[in-house]
Automatic annotation (TrEMBL):
Residues 1-21 have a biased composition (Pro residues). Residues 1-22 are annotated as: Disordered. The lineage of its organism: Eukaryota, Fungi, Dikarya, Ascomycota, Pezizomycotina. This is Uncharacterized protein.
Length: 243
């Protein structure tokens, strides 16, 4: 029995973005599609956490494919890997061999080709500078999970996505608080303000305008509190370099 296709973006039961082959028009930033228009925190994501999110999407998709083929497509499963999902390389060559030129499970071909792209992304990572790049890649794992009808792993995917959002919201609050404190101190007692990698990365994006340049004219505006904190962070770094 063929699996049902992913939910329609118009379905009230599904909060997911539309299938990647059907981009939303007019353009909406992926963070807006995920969480609605108030996405000030989306600028405050952590690169490492976002990469781990895409790795989770890949792991879940690989596990789901292994189990699905074992039950529904034994020959596909035998040619793919009998030992463990960890042995699935998820390359196009492997998929073409395992499906005998896509003659087995042809309904999965679009999802598997997208999943192959996710595999390339997690195998050769580089900093993206914006949440949308990670979100779009992770969605390729979600697309496969939906094609396979693996509800349990879809829920795990959503939990990972929610955790990324929660961390970004927390980082936003921390930067907002630190920025206000820096302005109050006016450059004095800098050692009392603690900045870690997450804070400085966001401040760097804000100061350089990297995310805004890469998304123009479709950008998410930076919250004034983040711009203010980034300006204070930049000024204090200048003070430290002059000492």
């Amino acid at each position: 029995m063929s699996p049902e296709p992913p939910d329609s973006p118009d379905s009230p039961e599904s909060p997911e973005p539309p299938p990647l082959s059907e981009p939303a028009l007019p353009f909406q930033h992926p963070a807006v599609i995920y969480y609605g228009p108030r996405v000030w925190w989306a600028f405050c994501f952590d690169e490492m956490a976002a990469l781990e999110y895409t790795q989770t999407a890949f792991r879940l998709g690989r596990e789901a494919l292994w189990e699905y083929t074992r039950i529904h497509h034994p020959e596909f499963h035998r040619r793919l890997s009998k030992a463990s999902p960890l042995f699935i390389r998820a390359s196009q060559t492997e998929f073409e061999y395992s499906t005998i030129g896509w003659s087995l499970a042809p309904e999965l071909k679009p999802a598997l080709l997208k999943f192959k792209d996710l595999r390339n992304f997690v195998s050769h990572p580089c900093e993206q500078g914006e949440l949308s790049s990670y979100a779009e890649e992770a969605d390729k794992g979600l697309y496969l999970l939906k094609m396979l009808g693996d509800e349990a792993r879809i829920q795990q995917f959503r939990a990972a996505r929610d955790a990324l959002r929660t961390q970004a919201e927390q980082t936003f609050t921390e930067i907002q608080d630190r920025g206000a404190l820096l302005y109050d101190l006016q450059g004095d007692y800098v050692e009392d303000v603690s900045w870690d990698r997450r804070h400085t990365a966001v401040s760097w994006r804000s100061v350089t305008g990297r995310a805004r340049r890469s998304l123009e004219p479709k950008s998410i505006p930076i919250h004034p509190a983040i711009s203010r904190a980034a300006e204070a962070w930049q000024n204090l770094n200048s003070i430290e370099r002059e000492k």
